[in-house]
Amino acid sequence: MTIHHHGAVDGVTGSCHELVLGPDASLLIDCGLFQGEDAAPRGGPDQLAIGFDVRRVKALVVTHVHIDHVGRIPWLLAAGFEGPILCSEPSARLLPLVLEDAFKLSLSRQTEAVARYLQVIEQRLVALPYDQWHHVHDEARIRLRRAGHILGSAYVECDVAGHRTVFSGDLGAPHAPLLDPPVPPEGCDTLVIESTYGDRRHEGRARRRERLAAVLRRALRDQGTVLIPAFSIGRTQELLYELEDIIEEGGDGEAVDGLPWRELPVILDSPLATRFTRVYRGLARFWPVEARARRAAGRRPLAFEQRLTVDDHVAHQRMVRHLAESRRPAIVIAASGMCTGGRIVNYLKAMLGDPRHNVLFVGYQAAGTPGRAIQAHGPKGGYVDLDGERITIRAGIETLGGYSAHADRDGLIHFVTGQSRWPSRILIVHGDPDAKQALADALRQRYRAAGRAVSVECPS
């Protein structure tokens, strides 16, 4: 099978892969935005451009709704794509919210224009149940399987004239409270697999809730606010779920002197995250068994009593001032996850210079982001530049591992070797060069040990 790669071959963003179905037909898997260092070489309009003929594309399949997998969909439509957008049922609920935000940031803030774009998107959306085959063109059919990355994520099995190709999308890791881990496919001929963490192993995921509680106890003793920068979708909902469990278990016991866990405010200050969380609550039938059981027992894992939501900008400014000046402990979850923008920046500007407050990182901080600077220089009493203002870091800085939404090297290898029929061709994408090479080497070694033949490639 011929596969053209239009992104996520030189880095981890811009995912877009084209499976050729015939002389004048193809299937597109994702159409994501280039970000960070991946966007820099392209610059300006080039990072959004659709550099291939869309007339042959019969359908777009979305593996999940992160912006690096869906962010170029508006430009795909503008380039003339007229086919359906196929995705899982949860993704069909979440995708319009993601693209509405993208439209407002990059295309237009005009309400009517955004509404027209979204209407087109919703008309094209086709929600597919997991684990059922769907005909797409002539002899081609696809099936979505749970990928365990975020709610609605899927890997894609494509059957074309007796040849099975699997696109992994982004694969999740075990011990995520709102997701079941991915189960490998029965087998395939060609596998296109991500490699974000192809060169490392995750540690401590099984006990991350206990470690989160311990970090919070230490930080709250300072009688200030614990700031948690978090992505609006996926990470925020997992944090809310685990915080509810910590508070429920703590009950009337003291989080800090004089403040029971039941009275500890958890402030969600991210309008987009609030909307995503509302959708997550409405999709509880896609949660794992334990999470559904907790809800059936009368608990509200994503909307518990102590959770406060900040909506408009005036209320946000008032909350920042109140928490910066008061001595009442609180937890704030706000975007963006790498502190590159969003409401978390205002909290950081107000609180980084005060040792009573703490910043807790639970996600990867890319090089060149304010989050990375705070993480690296904060413990040394360094500084960070935010909105052109240099701020000396006196707040406590903590980093908690175990929250990655990506499979590690062992998980990626299991996705291959857990199949009853191992693929004979593997294309490694969506990773930095070192990660791709490490995964390629590990897979070749595993095949040699099993006495099997394989072609492992890292497209460029």
Automatic annotation (TrEMBL):
It holds the Pfam family Lactamase_B. Residues 13-216 form the Metallo-beta-lactamase domain. Coiled coil: none annotated. The keyword Hydrolase applies. GO terms for molecular function: hydrolase activity; RNA endonuclease activity. Keywords: Hydrolase. This is MBL fold metallo-hydrolase. Residues 236-374 form the Beta-Casp domain.
